[in-house]
Amino acid sequence: MSKIIVLGGGMVGSAIALDLTKRHDVTLSDISEARLAHVKQKNEKLIILALDVTNLASLKEAIEPFDLVVCAVPGFLGFKTLRAIIEAGKNVVDISFFPEDAFELAALAKANNVTAIVDCGVAPGMDNIILGRYNELMSITHFECLVGGLPKVKKWPFYYKAPFSPVDVIEEYTRPARYVENGTLVTRDALTDCTYVEFNRVGTLESFNSDGLRSILFTMSHIPNMVEKTLRYPGHVDAIMTLKESGFFSITPVDVNGQNIAPLDFTSRILFKEWKLGEEEEEITVMRITVKGKNGAGETVEVVYDLHDEYDAPTRTSSMARTTGYTATAAVNMFLEGLFKEKGVFPPEWVGAKEECFNYIMQYLAERGVNYKKTTRKINE
After folding, report:
1. Going edge to edge, which strands form the sheet with 68-71?
2. Residue 381's pLDDT is what?
């Protein structure tokens, strides 16, 4: 049994902490004491600690007694927090999904004898793990990830609820999307190339460009075609494009009755109420990962992993928390059991490349009811 501290008590961080209590001594930290008290009601075994991670001295002191750290802080805090964890010499699994380049910390991690597994969620995360494994088995020509978290109840006008801050969602809608086509890196506006895709148990969803490939753009640069798209209910893109093109996402302040207000701040405040996902509100996660290429026998094959996961009523755990958080806890237990020992900074595709790590994570998720359905077909060319 190991001592683990989870930094961040939000929807995903709390699910991570509660899952890890099944095998370990776990402390959950957050800046909100009210949030910590609420999570502790779900499991008295959980130890709670009020902590402001922006106070780096206090952070390093707080994590000193622990064998491993899980970093589940908001993205804008992620990079500095991860750097402090590594400087403290602590192994870490990170799901903060910060915009900075995690590889900038690789030399620091090696110098401090630290293993840092980053982007270890559902997407990025499981799509990387699956791609990393099949990169060892095939000569891949095409990779596609379609993914989205959706409310069960479709409420006009957005047909959407966010399990995290609207600011982070809007950032995904405004950040240029990068993908690879015929060996060339292409950059397009987010929300473009909208197409309709059918999914069992859900129906028609719309997919659109988003900047989700992250580390794969560099670690898998030999693959000539790679794209990640976000999934939403039909009608969502039109609603968002109306706001975007009308300037509601602008950070340039405008004068309103003598007050300078950034439209993005106003929009985020409005959307927080509109998009807020209730703790017991039912939602689903839909993902389809497609890998195409030649196998060892020289045959062209297409491998598809489909995920359909739903809110778990008995444990009151959201699907996004399950699919994201349990990937992270799988990586934690995999590491603590000695299946991955390398030192440095590792995106999930480098972890999934190892067969024993891939199998462990898939089995761990299946035990928690997060099931990726695999289908394979030969393609005659």
Report:
1. 47-50, 25-30, 3-7, 68-71, 91-94, 115-117, 344-346
2. 67
The token pair at 329 is 């806890």
Question: Can you read off the two tokens belonging to residue 302?
Answer: 């297409």
Q: Specify burial of residue 280 (Cβ count, 10 A radius: 0-12, 13-18, 19+).
A: exposed
Token pair belonging to 229: 């798209």
Tell whether the model's pLDDT for residue 163 goes beyond 80: no
Hey, which residues does 260 pair with through a beta bridge?
Answer: 255
Residue extents of the structural domains in the chain: 3-121+320-371, 126-310
Residue (of 293, 320, 285, 349) closest to 126 by Cα position:
349
Is pTM beyond 0.90 here? yes
Whether omega for the bond prior to residue 314 falls within 30 degrees of 0, making it cis, is no
How are beta strands 300-310 and 225-232 bridged, if at all? unpaired
Architecture category of domain 3-121+320-371 in CATH:
3-Layer(aba) Sandwich (3.40)
Q: Strand 259-261 relative to strand 300-310: parallel, antiparallel, unpaired?
A: unpaired
For 7, phi then psi, to 5°, come to -95, 110
Q: Is the pLDDT of residue 170 over 70?
A: yes
Query: pLDDT tens digits, residue range 84-111?
Result: 999 999 999 999 999 899 999 999 999 9
Query: Given 3.40.50.300, 3.20.20.30, 3.30.70.330, 3.30.360.10, which CATH number is that of 126-310?
Result: 3.30.360.10
Min mean pLDDT across 137-146, 183-192, 264-273 is at 264-273
| Nearest residue to 232 (alpha-carbon basis) of 306, 155, 174, 177 | 155
CA distance 6 to 329: 11
Burial track 152-166 (b if 16+ CB lie within 10 A, e otherwise): eeeeeebbbbbbbbb
